[in-house]
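Incident log, support desk, overnight shift.

02:14 A customer reports that sequence design results differ from what the structure should imply. Their input is reproduced verbatim below. On-call engineer (initials T.W.) acknowledged and began investigating.
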């Protein structure tokens, strides 16, 4: 049995390599810090597998190129960071409405506005609520390591094809720039029948991919169809638990903050405090039913985020009515330390 191939790479390169392992053949993007290593890597290596790299003239152009490539059934991706993703929202809505798959990466930075290039989790609402117009959702995957950047990118392509829907990877500047060893998978891209794809009507009747419905009742019917699909996505829920077996308080965090707070939880355990971690990996669909069942055993939750309060709303909506939910948030601009977060745990623990 051959040994797995392990390489030391940064988080952005891991995403690019995960995309290639998943069979991505088209990338469209526009430079913005802190995700530029993704297009940098793909611009060099995607042509090696007969893929196409295009640096578009804008973020708006790149999302519409993704729509076009996805409509042909090709595996395609775009990436950006916070304000760039804001510019892509209209196109993401069109893709969801037309049921066109594609992978969108947001290595988020500080905001609002131009903000700064430091890590932030301030794009949670934008990602999980559907930041564009209309009644739509995207599957949102939140890695917390360089390995997960790689693995979840591979998974994102399969989910996009399975559900004919955009899928978002929501990382941040910390996860994009840090370096870790990763195991490179000998991945075989998923095979999906795509009779809906626009491949030329030479041997079939013409077909359409659209999000415009003007006949009476058609749009209502289409939205109910999409709604049922979003309900089916709950089968894809992923999460991680850490030291919750005997916990009387559970910290809920995602992404890079969950990574930091694991050390804080170990500090709390050393002090005799029974604290555990619940980490959502899918931010949409959110693991609300898992949290609800957990809240029947544990009645104290502590949401910790690198923002002023976003995911905490989903925690409150998920847990039983009698549960206590505390919150600690940090506006972006700096990264909390394990000691700082341990101090916050001590303040609310009882």
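02:41 Re-run completed on a clean worker. Output:
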């Amino acid at each position: 049995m051959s040994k797995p191939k392990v390489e030391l790479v940064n988080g952005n390169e891991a995403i690019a390599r995960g995309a290639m392992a998943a069979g991505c053949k088209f990338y469209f993007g526009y430079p913005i810090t802190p995700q530029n290593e993704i297009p940098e890597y793909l611009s060099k290596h995607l042509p090696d597998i007969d893929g196409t790299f295009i640096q578009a003239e804008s973020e708006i152009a790149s999302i519409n190129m993704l729509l076009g490539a996805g409509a042909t059934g090709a595996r395609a991706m775009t990436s950006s960071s916070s304000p760039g993703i804001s510019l892509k929202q209209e196109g993401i809505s069109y893709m969801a409405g037309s049921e066109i798959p594609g992978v969108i990466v947001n290595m988020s930075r500080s905001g609002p506005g131009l903000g700064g290039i430091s890590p932030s989790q301030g794009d949670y609402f934008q990602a999980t609520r559907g930041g564009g117009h209309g009644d739509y959702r995207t599957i949102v995957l939140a890695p917390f390591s360089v390995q997960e950047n790689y693995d979840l990118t591979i998974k994102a392509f399969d989910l996009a094809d399975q559900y004919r829907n955009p899928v978002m990877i929501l990382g941040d500047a910390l996860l994009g720039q840090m370096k870790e060893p990763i195991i490179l998978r000998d991945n075989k891209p998923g095979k999906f029948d795509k009779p809906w794809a626009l491949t030329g009507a030479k041997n079939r009747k013409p077909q359409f991919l659209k999000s415009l419905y003007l006949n009476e009742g058609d749009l209502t019917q289409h939205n109910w169809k999409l709604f049922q699909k979003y309900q089916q996505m709950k089968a894809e829920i992923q999460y991680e638990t850490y030291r919750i077996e005997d916990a009387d308080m559970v910290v809920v965090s995602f992404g890079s903050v969950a990574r930091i707070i694991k050390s804080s939880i170990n500090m709390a355990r050393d002090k005799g405090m029974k604290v555990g971690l619940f980490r959502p990996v899918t931010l949409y669909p959110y693991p609300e039913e898992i949290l609800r069942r957990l809240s029947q055993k544990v009645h104290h939750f502590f949401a910790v985020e690198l923002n002023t309060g976003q995911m905490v709303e989903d925690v409150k909506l998920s847990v039983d009515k009698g549960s206590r939910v505390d919150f600690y948030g940090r506006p972006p601009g700096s990264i909390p330390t394990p000691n700082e977060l341990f101090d916050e745990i001590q303040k609310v623990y009882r």
